[in-house]
DNA sequence: ACAAAAGTGTTCCCGATACACCCATGC
DNA sequence: GCATGGGTGTATCGGGAACACTTTTGT
């Protein structure tokens, strides 16, 4: 016996919801699909699973194809399995979301691929159920980022507290008190202050911080409660 | 064009991690696998996806085959996609977890299937990567139950506060203060006290409660913080 | 009357919030 | 010297945790 006979084999795709942050607003990386059906329509970056790779490997390969980046934070989100989601042929999609530092690769963008950043709020109509996937990813982002230090993955290695605050404000579409936010953040012990300052945002300059890798790893699963009243921001 | 040519189609299975609670300890429902390979070894309840069903439908179908139950709380957990996880043929598995009221079906158990409840802590060696799946499910259970009123799905429609407390204590392998626990629980507004009492556990008897369906639905996503220091119970 | 479990109330403390001022610098 | 954004300190409030006694009833 070398195969399970009589069972149906199914096409399996991996689609990536890729978030980036440019310092101002939260963005989503989309491509113009290069093949039929729906050629030239906007789409998430995706591809079919190959025979000898794991799902995580497939997701990493696909991300690399588009962005050239490796070692990026990715997480499996959910399988989308409605039988009719792809009109050509029944295809399961394993959705991953990924956070990248937008500046790390902005250059090679739209060379080989027609890729473009869209503000998350102004995403165009996407093929198949990709708009669903994006919405789901946005919910999951809000959910997880309220509890875990996830959003740091969207920032460069060195960042300032005003930057990370702006990012949180963007994700939750709200305004936070800078005194409380900064206290809460620093009290986690996650941040190591650098001597250098970022003079871009103001005359005075804001201190750069780096993550303490040990504490970051340690506290990643802890419930840190970055956002007051997080439930107010969760879709029911 | 009616198919994506040149792409590999893959076998996809759904495996269910089924939790139950008998009032004493948390249990896991396992079956003896009925076909090769690994015939007669203990296994999660699973099956192959069929062409015209969604993933959720597949999970529900498989659960029904084993337990006869419908309308059970199920949630997609994670895809397990290591290429070698099934030695016969590459098979993806979509893992679901399910919570059932153990008493609702205890009778028809092990008729058609060799099914058996195992205390979660004493689960036997399972086929393939099923022990991994169980471990992952246990982590997810602890994670979610610390925040959301999930464990009620394991209890009958009417239950007492000592019962639900025992369940929490079981899941987290700890002891909780009954005064604080009961106050916290009642303050959510989730519970409606019945007039009737359960005289089984004590002479005095404990009031039965039911869930308020509206509030339950409403607050399911809220962060309710049932467990003090939840991070202490999460695997890093 | 006594054992065994259910039910309830109070104090204390810490963490969360609201809120206002000084600091450094480029122009 | 003034405008701009960065950084810090304090009082208050509420929720969470620690903790002990009374109630019910079957035996």
Q: Any overview of this molecule?
A:
The structure is a homodimer of 236-residue chains. The first copy, chain A, has 236 residues and is of the alpha+beta class. The first copy, chain A, folds into 2 domains: 11-146, Nucleoside Triphosphate Pyrophosphohydrolase (Alpha-Beta Complex), CATH 3.90.79; 148-233, Arc Repressor Mutant, subunit A. Helices cover 25% and strands 28% of the residues of chain A. Chain A contains 5 helices and 10 strands, in the order ββββαβββαβααββα. In chain A, strands 1, 2, 3, 4, 5, 6 and 7 form a 7-stranded mixed β-sheet that branches. Chain A has a 3-stranded antiparallel β-sheet with strand order 8-10-9. The longest helix of chain A is centred in the middle third of the chain and has 18 residues, at 130-147. The first copy, chain A, is elongated and about 65 Å long. The mean pLDDT of chain A is 92. The interface between A and B is large, with 47 and 47 residues. Strand 1 (9-21) of chain A pairs antiparallel with strand 1 (9-21) of chain B.
List keywords for this structure.
homodimer; about 240 residues; alpha+beta; Nucleoside Triphosphate Pyrophosphohydrolase; Arc Repressor Mutant, subunit A; 2 domains; 7-stranded mixed beta sheet; 5 helices; about 25% helix; DNA-binding
- How confident is the prediction overall: mean pLDDT of chain A? 92
Full CATH superfamily name of the largest domain in chain A: Nucleoside Triphosphate Pyrophosphohydrolase
Largest interface: A-B, 47 and 47 residues
| Major beta sheet summary of chain A | 7 strands, mixed
Low-confidence stretches of chain A: none
By oligomeric state, this entry counts as homodimer
Q: Please tell me how large the radius of gyration of chain A is.
A: 20 Å
- At the third CATH level, what is the topology name of the largest domain in chain A? Nucleoside Triphosphate Pyrophosphohydrolase
Helicity range of chain A: 25-40%
Pfam family, one (chains A, B): NUDIX
Domain Nudix hydrolase (chains A, B): 9-142
Organism (chains A, B): Paradesertivirga mongoliensis
Protein name (chains A, B): NUDIX domain-containing protein
């Amino acid at each position: 016996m070398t195969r399970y006979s009589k069972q149906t084999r199914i096409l399996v795709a991996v689609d990536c919801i890729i978030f980036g942050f440019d310092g101002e607003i939260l963005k989503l990386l989309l491509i113009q699909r290069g093949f039929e059906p729906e050629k030239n329509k906007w789409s998430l970056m995706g591809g079919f699973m190959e025979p000898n790779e794991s799902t995580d490997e497939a997701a990493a390969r696909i991300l690399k194809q588009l962005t050239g980046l490796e070692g990026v934070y990715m997480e499996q989100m959910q399988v989308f399995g409605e039988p009719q989601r792809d009109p050509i042929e029944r295809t399961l999609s394993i959705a991953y979301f990924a956070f990248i530092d937008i500046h790390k690769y902005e250059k090679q963008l739209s060379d080989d691929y027609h890729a473009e950043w869209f503000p998350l709020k102004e995403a165009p109509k996407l093929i198949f159920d990709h708009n669903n996937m994006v919405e789901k990813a946005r919910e999951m982002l809000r959910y997880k980022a309220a509890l875990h230090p996830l959003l740091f993955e969207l920032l460069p290695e060195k960042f300032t507290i005003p930057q990370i605050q702006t990012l949180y404000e963007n994700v939750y579409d709200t305004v936070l008190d800078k005194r409380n936010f900064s206290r809460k953040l620093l009290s986690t012990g996650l941040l190591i202050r650098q001597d250098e300052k970022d003079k871009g945002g103001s005359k005075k300059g804001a201190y750069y911080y780096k993550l303490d890798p040990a504490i970051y790893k340690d506290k990643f699963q802890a419930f840190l409660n970055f956002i007051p009243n997080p439930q107010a921001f969760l879709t029911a």
